[in-house]
Amino acid sequence: MAGPAALLVSIRHQAGALHALRAAAAPHPPHSPPQPSHTQTFDASRSGPAWHSLGEETEVSEPGGAQELEEERQTPGKSPKEGEESGDLSPRSPYEAWPGLPRRETLREMALCSKMSRLIEATSRLVQVEETLLIPLLQQHPLSFHPKDSIEFRNICSHMALQREGQQFERDLHEAHQCLKTIIEKLICSLAVSPSDSYIPIRSALRQILQNLLAM
């Protein structure tokens, strides 16, 4: 296929790839911790040493226990027994002390996130330039385009949306990055052979997209 028809097919596949990339970059739904059932809670309460018969409102403590606790509360500067017995007074990481807090990203994860963001931005800008600038000019100065690379790009991104993590996801991200790079470079070369000066602004825009895609 040649001319605007082939470009439209390529754009359609690139738009599908963009949709898959955004789905792959979306955060995972939070997993709520499992809640114990009523039966588990009841059994756990019975297994404890302080479990008592129905109708009692307070636990039976050892003789002198309440008095010692009261003396500890009244003595200034004295820490509770529980803290003394544990012996662990070293500061702990907030992510270790409170598992519910969000985990900090590693440098590797931050690099992957940055690469994914550049890939999404470059794909979005490429589709925009092709739709708004390139298609109108092809009516006057036809050029040949082949959607093969765009089809491969869409397939890789669709696979990424299914994986979303792991080594295979990283390999797919690298391949998608290289595939989009190839698409832009081939498009620039195709426009460079045209004698029309109308393609100069488009080539400049494509080079800027490529530069942003490859930015470190």
Model description:
With 216 residues, the protein is mainly alpha-helical. It has a domain of 136 residues. The chain is 65% helix and 0% strand. It is built from nine helices and no strands.
Keywords for this entry:
216 residues, mainly alpha, 9 helices, elongated, DLEU7, LEU7 protein
Radius of gyration: 31 Å
Q: Counting H and I runs of at least 4 residues, what is the number of helices?
A: 9
Structure class? mainly alpha
Give the overall shape, derived from the CA principal axes. Answer: elongated
Task: Outline the biggest β-sheet.
Answer: none
**Topology as a string of helices (H) and strands (E):** HHHHHHHHH
β-strand number: 0
Helix content: 55-70%
**What's the N-to-C terminus distance?**
36 Å
InterPro entries: DLEU7
Pfam families: DLEU7
Protein name: LEU7 protein
Secondary structure layout:
Elements: H1 4-25, H2 38-47, H3 65-74, H4 81-86, H5 94-97, H6 107-138, H7 148-163, H8 167-192, H9 200-213
Helix pairs in contact: 1-6, 1-7, 6-8, 6-9, 7-8, 8-9
Region (Disordered): 22-101
InterPro entries: DLEU7
Pfam families: DLEU7
Summarize the structure.
With 216 residues, this protein is mainly alpha-helical. It is built from nine helices and no strands. Helix 6 packs parallel to helix 8 and helix 8 (167-192) packs antiparallel against helix 9 (200-213).
